[in-house]
Batch of 2 targets.
Target 1
Amino acid sequence: MTAKIIEGLPVAERLRAEVTAEVARLRAEHGLQPGLAVVLVGEDPASQAYVKSKGEQSLAAGMHSVTHRLPADTKQDELLRLIADLNADPLIHGILVQLPLPKHLDEKPVIDAIDPDKDVDGLHVVNAGRLVAGLPALTACTPVGCMVLLRDTLGDLTGKHAVVVGRSRLVGKPIGQLLLAANCTVTMAHSKTVDLPAVCRSADILVAAVGQPRMIRGDWIKPGACVIDVGINRVPFDNPEQAALGKTKLVGDVNYKEAVQVAGSITPVPKGVGPMTVACLLQNTVTAAKRIAGIDS
Ligand code: NDP
C-alpha cells in the first residue's frame, strides 16, 4: 500500500482564509490592520519570487503590506537604518528580511536589530529563547507549517518518536522544540550522526531538513511512519535529453519514489511544506499585531 499524500496547498488555503477572516475582524472591531514589511536586498531570482508572493498574499489577506527593494550594493548601516525605521513604524507589526543577504552584509546584526515583537521570521535570539523556555514566541514559519501538517495528519502527537534530520537555526532546531512541546520524544540528527539510516528507521515522525536531494532512502523509513520533507533542491531532469537542455525541477531531501512505498503518510515536493510557509508568515503577522496592540482574543 502506498502512503497518504499530505497536500500542503489546501491546508495553506484554509489557513489563509482563517487569517483573512481574522484581519477583517481586527479591522472592524479594533480598527487594527496588521502590517507586514518585507525587505529584499539585491536581485536573487528565487528571493525575488518569494518576496513577490509574500507581498501579494499579505495584501490579499487584507493586510497593510510594504516591500522595500534595496540595491545589491546597499551598505550595512543603510539596512540597519531601515530596520530602525520599521521598528518605530506603528503601521508595521511584522518585519521580514529576506535571506540570504548579499555576501558583503553581515546577517547576524541585521536580525539582532529587528524588534523581537515584530520578528515574524522567528530568527531573533529572544524568540529562539522564548521558544525553548516555553514562553509565547514568534516562531519560524516553516517549522510552524510542518506542525500544522503533522497535527492535521496524525492528530495528537503525544509519545511519538520524532527524528529531525538537520539542526539549522531556521528549520531543524525550532521544529525539534515544537515537537518536544507537543510531547514527542525527539532525536535531533545532523551531519555527524552515526548510522543515520538506523536513527531514521526508529522514527514514527521523520522530518528531513537537510538540503541534500533525495538523501533519505526508502529503507531508512519505518513502515507506516509520517514523513515531512522540508527540503527544496533544484536538480536536472531525470530524462537525459531534457537535462541536456538545461531543464531542472524541484525535489526534496527524501527519495519520494521509494519513501511513498513504505511511509504511512508523506509530504510531496513541491506542494507539501512549501505552501505552508507564507500562510504561517501571515498568521505570525496577525499574532504580532494582536500582541503589540494588547488584544487577547
Ligand atoms: P542548512 O544548510 O542551514 O542546514 C542543513 C542541516 O542539515 C545542517 O544541520 C546539517 O548538519 C544537516 N546535514 C547536511 N548534510 C547532512 C548529511 N549528509 N547527513 C545528515 N545531516 C546533514 O539548511 P536549512 O535548514 O536552511 O534548510 C534545509 C532544507 O530545507 C533546504 O533544502 C532548504 O532549501 C529547505 N527549506 C525549505 C523551506 C520551505 O519553505 N519548505 C524553508 C527553509 C528551508 P550540520 O549542522 O552538522 O552541518
Target 2
Amino acid sequence: MLNDLFAQRVNPDVPSALSGLFPQDTDPRAISFAAGSPNESLFPVAAMQTAFDTAIAQTGAHLFQYQTAQGNPDLRAKLAARIGKWGQVPTTADNVVLTVGGQQAIELVAKALLNVGDEVAVEVPTYVGALAAFDLYQPTYHAVPLQADGLDLDRLEETLKRHPRIKLLYTVPDYHNPTGITMSVTKRRELVALANRYDFIILEDSPYRDLGYEHAPLPAIKSFDTEGRVVFVSSLSKILMPGLRTGWLVADNDLLAAIMRVRLASDLETSNVVHAAIDAYLDANDLDAHITALKSNYREQCAAMIHALAAYFPDDISYTQPAGGFFDWVTLPEEIDAAALLRDTVIPQAHVSYVPGTNFYPDRDVHNSLRLCFTGLTPAVIDSGMHRLGDAVKGAVRG
Ligand code: PMP
C-alpha cells in the first residue's frame, strides 16, 4: 500500500482537525454560520489594486527579486509601530517576521519547538488550525478549560505541577476562536509569571485583537514578557483580506533565530510583491478607519445573533457574549451531540449549518457545543437562520 510509505504525521486513518469542518448544503434556503470568513463585501479591493500598481511602478523588476527572509522591511516597520501603538508590544522591525498568514506562524513555532511526544498545553476549546499544525509534531496535549475571563490559571498551574515538562502553551487571548472570550489583563500578566516560574513558552495568537466592539485592544500577553518567552502572532486576514496570506510574528533572541531557521527551510521568504503592495496600501489609506467600518458591521451582526439566541432558543442552553471578533459559542444540554443534530435534523430540516464543537478539543471528547460565525450575513438573515436553528434545537431538547 502506498499509504504505508507516508509519515505517521499524515496517517490517513486519523483525519486532520481541519478536514470536514464546513458542512455543505446546496438547498437555496441554506444559511451558513459555519465558515469563519470575513465579510468580502467589505474588502478594499479597488484600493488594493491601486496599491499593487503603485508598488510595481515604484520598484519595477527588483520588486520580484528574492528579498529578505524576515520579509519586506517597510511593512515590518509599520506592523512593529502598529503593534507598539497602545504600549502593547514594544518591538522593532528586527523582531518581526512576515508569514503566510498567522497559520504559518503557528506552524513554524510548532516546528521550531516540538519533538514527538512533547507536552503542549492548550485552552479548550481551541482553534482547530492550531491543533492541525501541532498534530503534525505528535505532541501530548494537556487541556486547560476557559473561563469567561480567559484561561483558568488555577487549573493551568495544577496541570503544570503534575506535568512540569510542558514546554508550550497556546492561547488566543482576544475574541477567541471559537468562543469569542477575551482574557483579562490581570490573567495576561499572571500567565507570563507562570511561564517564567514553570519554564514554558507562550504562543499568543491574536488575529482578532483589533476587532473589539467596545474598546481599544488590551495589552498583549507579549507586553508583559520579561524573558523573551512569548511569541506574538497576528494577521491581516481578519482586518484586511485573507487572500493576501499575510500574518506576522514577534519573537526575541534565540527563539527568533530558531524560528528563522525553520522558516528558511519551509519557504525561504514570503511574497515581497504582496508585501510591498500592502505597504503601499498602508501609505495611501487609513487602516484604522477601515477597521472602524468593519467593527460597526460586525457589532450589529453579533447583536442580531445574541438577540436571536435569547429569543428563539430553549432556556437550557448557554452561550458566550463576545465583545468582538467573529464567533459565538453555544453549549447544548450534555446529552445532545451537536454533530448528529446538524447532520440528522438541522441541515435536512432547517437548512442551517454551524461547526460542531468536537474538533476544537484535542481529544475530541466533548460533543454538545457548536460554533456560530456571524460575519457573512445581514442581521435580517441572521435572525431568520437563527429562528430556524432555535426551533430545531428546541425540538431536540424536548425530544
Ligand atoms: N488563528 C486563529 C485563532 C484563527 O481564527 C485563524 C483563522 N481562522 C488563524 C490563526 C489563521 O488565519 P490566517 O492564516 O488567515 O492569518
